[in-house]
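Support reply, case 0932

Customer input (verbatim):
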Amino acid sequence: MADNKSKKTVKKVVLAYSGGLDTSIILKWLQSTYGCEVVTFTADLGQGEELEPARQKALLLGIKKENIFVEDLREEFVRDYVFPMFRANALYEGQYLLGTSIARPLIAKKQIEIAEKVGADAVAHGATGKGNDQVRFELTYYALKPDVTVIAPWREWDLTSRGKLIEFAEKHQIPIAKDKRGEAPFSVDSNLLHTSSEGKLLEDPSQDVPDYVFSRTVDPEKAPDKPTYITVDFERGDAVAVDGKKVSPAALLKQLNEFGRANGIGRLDLVENRFVGMKSRGMYETPGGTILLAAHRGIESITLDRGAAHLKDELMPKYAELVYYGFWFVPEREMLQAAIDKSQEFVTGRVKLKLYKGNTTVVGRESKYSLYDQELVTFEEGAVAYDHRDAEGFIKLNALRLRTLGQRRRKLKLD
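Our regenerated output:
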């Protein structure tokens, strides 16, 4: 075990606590290693699990009732984190919808708020020393409370095997479910936006993902043979209604998840570049988010000016990278967000989508702010808004530098 004397004195620590075996071990480890008071914080981000057991587990492990925080953050998560990110159409490395990445700043922010409330001088998380989450948590901690002490047990302790973790749990009388005694076949993270699975049997990128890994979507091949049609309404870039019925942000994403699940939408087998420098292979299921992205791009296609749309697409990779790396509370992300939000001023209207066997297709879009002018694009005779002859001067002006370059090439050949 790590040497207590080399550690900074900690009086009270707020732990991001799931109620699972690993964070329960961390809870006891913090008490025994730092001799500090532990406050637990459990966030409901729509992971689909009953969170009351986490409260009861904390009580069982000796945490005072007033030091146990369980908060429903589903609406805040979708409204203030997921939706702003989707206004940017953010995709990390062109594919990943950032379901885990976008959740961490909110959890960390709430930890800091609770630390301020209870007078804690430290915060702790259960992220490993190889992954991205340690970075995401800690960048947020330091951004919001620069003088906070951060405890990352996986970078400090010597509990480096499943056997040692189980031994520690038994020594400290931490209940262990039968299915938790063996090595987990893969790790899972889940919230209202997505489920990610990685590690162990998924580590070989040459091997298919086994069917039993998927939990949020039916097999696209087994999805209904008849397509499902839905509409999504937007106001200023945010989805506000499904099939004409207005609902809250979290309720809307939940509905889209259900449509996505039934139609096998949102599966992604990805090898990505972690911030810490290694490649990793993960399997993601983002059913509602996949539908939402297609719908948002659909409404933007008729409401965004070409220049604004193309600039957004240029900014998107940087925005997505900032979210993936954990830089949510930084000036450059806020600057990009301001520009993106400005672009959404007229992104209002309705999109019709066809959902069929893993595919999401935009089949209709309409808006009172539409820039699409049928008279301009029609091939019918008699259109008065556009004079075909105007194109000649436009082309010649754009060709001027090309003709100049061509003349130089010809001259060099003659010489």
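We compared this against your earlier run and they match. Two observations from our side: The two ends are 79 Å apart (CA to CA). The mean pLDDT is 93. Please reopen the case if you see a mismatch on your end.
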